[in-house]
Amino acid sequence: MPVRNQSSPSAVPALECRGLSKAYGASRIVLAGLDFTLARGEFVAVMGDSGVGKSTLLNLIAGLDRADSGDVLIDGEPINGLDDDAATRLRRQKLGFVFQAFHVLPHLTLAQNVALPLLLNDLPLGQAAEMLAAVGLAGRDADLPRQLSGGELQRVAIARALVHRPRLILADEPTGNLDPDTAHDVLTLFRAQARSNHAATMMVTHSEAAAAFADRVLVLRGGHLHAGTLSAQHSTAAPQASPHA
């Protein structure tokens, strides 16, 4: 059965999709009236075959692509129908992004990279150093990205995604370029920091080991999100806790 609303009716969810549909031509239906709710502080992994539409789903949620029909609400605010300026403001204020390729700017220091969302939201820049310390990079504010390992670069990306305390984090294959041990360390940190900031997280991944860190595992299939299961090898790979702990 497709996944339905699982949040408390008294709480405004971090993310709600209502009847979300998207097709590319008549022959390729990606989303077919998808309904989904993500509670504040919840960490969800989305899996599925290549080309099924996982990245399209993230783009629709972020307002980077337009749905054919349906609504996306972030922190109770509908994004459909917003003009480009309003959609940009919403992304700037309420969303954080973590990508497989890090997207850390090579000519900026670590502190300057992490401070970008602070600059865009007119927030105190000192929070960048605090966030770097929180992800284990204290005292490295002035370092350049070329001085870091892949795991350290993803820690910078996590710090940048969280520094302005967004309501929702969208992560697209965040461990795809990392070795298993580094991926485990980064996901442990990612989940802990997202939870401490009360941010909801939707992570697209092909990795069962990565998905084991989530509170829920969902599979995108047939245009809907379905409850997923992990193999016994990975079902206890990461300790599962309440999304609101």
Protein architecture, described:
It is a single chain. The protein has 245 residues and is an alpha/beta fold. Helix content is 30%, strand content 24%. It is built from seven helices and ten strands. The protein has helices at residues 54-62, 84-94, 110-120, 127-134, 150-162, 180-196, 208-211; strands spanning 15-24, 28-38, 43-47, 69-74, 77-78, 95-99, 168-172, 200-204, 216-221, 224-227. Strands 6-7-8-3-9-10 form a six-stranded mixed sheet. Strands 2-1-4-5 form a four-stranded antiparallel sheet, covered by helices on one side. It is globular and about 50 Å long. The two termini are 28 Å apart. The model is unreliable at 4-10 and 236-245 (pLDDT under 50).
Label this structure with key terms:
disordered C terminus; 7 helices; alpha/beta; single chain; six-stranded mixed sheet; 10 strands; Rossmann fold
Brief sketch in words of this structure:
The chain is an alpha/beta fold and 245 residues long. It is built from seven helices and ten strands.
Quote the average pLDDT.
86
Rg: 17 Å
CATH architecture of the domain at 15-99 and 167-227: 3-Layer(aba) Sandwich
Largest sheet: 6 strands, mixed
